[in-house]
């Protein structure tokens, strides 16, 4: 059953936006190869210096393994106040609200 | 430009899962009518008693207005430790990772 991995952290605002787009293109491509990975929305706030990601993973074990690896990686990049949560998706309510449940999506 | 609204909170685990599905069906339908609303993924963790939502809104002002209203509403339902963040979407990186940027989605 697909899960949501929600990660956010603080990071100097000058590392976000277009600078992140350039710096993280190869990282983004590598994320497509992670076991169980389905999708990621890259989140950022250049006003507050916050960023993170909203991921779909195919299962909780894959999300957990990725989170543990990724937390160390963003820490090495200068992230602070890193916060990660793995959630199940309430599929019935999510379907009412046009959200991506992960059903029918293919893994990548 | 579409934004992500990320909300999570603690809530007694017995209010989540199937009980939430039954109790919140009308709430979910009403959320479809909110200004600027595009989609919501309903997130929950019955092991830790945490829940929340990942929303797409058409713009930051709509997300902000909804967040202020919704925080009071879930507080009245018994939620504690409520945390809300509004993020921009890095569209280039999100497109590489198959995430929903909000572009080409219709509002509901």
UniProtKB/TrEMBL annotation, chains A, B:
Keywords: Monooxygenase, Oxidoreductase. One of its GO terms (molecular function) is monooxygenase activity. It holds the Pfam family ydhR. InterPro entries: YdhR. This is Monooxygenase. It comes from Marinobacterium weihaiense.
């Amino acid at each position: 059953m697909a899960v949501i991995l929600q990660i956010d952290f603080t990071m100097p605002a000058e590392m976000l936006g277009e600078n992140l787009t350039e710096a993280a293109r190869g990282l983004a491509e590598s994320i497509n190869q992670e076991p169980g990975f389905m999708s990621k929305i890259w989140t950022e706030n250049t006003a507050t210096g916050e960023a993170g990601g909203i991921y779909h993973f195919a299962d909780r074990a894959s999300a957990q393994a990725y989170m543990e690896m990724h937390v160390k990686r963003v820490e090495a990049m200068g992230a602070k106040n890193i916060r990660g949560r793995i959630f199940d998706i309430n599929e019935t309510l999510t379907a009412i609200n046009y959200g991506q449940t992960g059903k029918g999506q293919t893994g990548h």
